[in-house]
Amino acid sequence: MPSDASTDLAYLSATEALAAFRTRELSPVELLTAVLDRAEKTEPVVNAVVEYLREEAYASAREAEQRYLGKGSGPLRPLEGLPVAAKEEQPIAGRSHREASLLMADNIADATHPVIQRVQEAGGIVHMRTTTPEFSSAAFTQSKMWGVTRNPWNPEYSCGGSSGGSGAALAAGYAPLATGSDIGGSIRIPASFNGVVGFKPPYGRVPAMPPYNLDQYCHDGPMARTVADCALLENVIAGPWAGDVVSLRPKLVLPEAYEGARGVEGLRIALCVTLGNYRVDAEVAANTRATAEALRAAGAIVEEIELAWDQPTIMRASLAHFAGIFGADAGAAVAAAPDLVNPYLAAFAADAARVAAETSFLEGLELEGAIYAELGPVLERFDALICPTTAIPALFADDDYTSTKVVVDGVELGHHMDIAMTIPFNICSRVPVLSVPSGFASNGVPTGVQVVGPTYDDAAVFKVAAAVEAVRPWAYVPGSRPAL
């Protein structure tokens, strides 16, 4: 794609932008204008934005500009002047909170999510809110309310879900940072499809709002285009919060800088391409193996392993869990207005109800325990595990997968979520997982790998992911960006 000054500004990393703000080579107002101009040009194709907060954003950018000029009050804050795209599912008091559902068309939030609150208190500028599927219930992003959100690399394909709008916004140059949430892969799937970085923190690391803060599958987390930027945002949003009983103390602070390839010298890394018996596309597998080989060349000790996981059992365990919480919410929405909800939400609610009738809560816990029993010993032997994020490069954007099936290597999968190699790590919710790009598929869509760390060892996954970024240089440079 041809390079121009405005587009180059839109693709600055957060750390680059902060450095330019400090030297006064760049103003927060200039960066905000660049990313909003980029969105205006490409939104007719991408459709990732549900609301712009232009007036408030420019007021905050001008205030940040004064701070960098030494004329504002108070010290510079960690995200001072950086535009941040916020997932609409995370409410902002006094603003619409629709969650892509016609049932909530008139809903106004009465509280602000702690993640959004912390972004703003750290000087981040929430200048736009991004699309989701209805109630964040799918691995693609489309709805009767907001239409279809597309992959900036190839609009025929989906941006993923449920934090699909945030992933697409990053890839399209709308912001250097974005927020997401992840109950079955909703940060990591869009990270993989869009070629960005997404972190599922371990349970309790980042606070959430009741009642879903009490669901151990649920995680709010950061998304960005680089590993260092993802760590920057994670350091802002992590830490204990009075409104969340499970939020961890003390606050963990990740390193601000990483050694790159040298950081993995001598580390023991497990490679598992199929996570038991997942069907994995050949290009995804090849890019995962190439990533492992590059880490080996950088000095890591990489060993390929097998896990005795069964994908249908993983799906059954997750649906048994969803049945009593998320699935029950979905079922109530479907029962209230079956003609208004999206078909994929109705299908999800039906699947959860079916599994609930077959699997008790206790049986679900027993399945979850058996799943971690396979992973736990691996994470005792190794510093990290790498595996694909998704089994295919991307889903198609215009299909809701209620009548058609995903086919991998000639085999028809039972459900579109069978491509989500993320779900086991929501079940094993205390492990940190970072999805980073691994390459491209022949359809022009990126692929990703997950870096999985031992329980609550967030630093390990960022160290390995920074090495992956260094040994497999990524795309957001002039001449190598989505051609929109």
**Cα-based radius of gyration, to the nearest Å:** 21 Å
Distance between the termini: 8 Å
State the name of the first-level CATH class.
Alpha Beta
Specify the helix fraction band.
25-40%
Main β-sheet description: 11 strands, mixed
Number of strands: 15
Give me the CATH architecture, please: Alpha-Beta Complex
Averaged pLDDT, please?
Answer: 96
Domain count: the total is 1
Number of helices: 15
Strand order of the largest sheet: 1-3-2-6-8-7-14-15-11-9-10
What structural class should be given to the helix and strand makeup? alpha/beta
As for the CATH topology, it is Amidase signature (AS) enzymes
User: Which shape, going by the Cα principal axes?
Assistant: globular
GO molecular function, one term: catalytic activity
Organism: Yinghuangia soli
Family: Belongs to the amidase family.
Domain Amidase: 30-461
Structural description of this entry:
With 484 residues, the protein is α/β, with parallel strands linked by helices. It has one domain: Amidase signature (AS) domain (Amidase signature (AS) enzymes). 37% of the residues lie in helices and 14% in strands. The chain is built from 15 helices and 15 strands. The strands form three sheets. It has an eleven-stranded mixed beta sheet with strand order 1-3-2-6-8-7-14-15-11-9-10, with helices on both faces. A hairpin with a 3-residue loop joins strand 4 and strand 5. Helix 10 packs across helix 11 and helix 10 crosses helix 13. The longest helix has 21 residues. The chain is globular, with a radius of gyration of 21 Å.
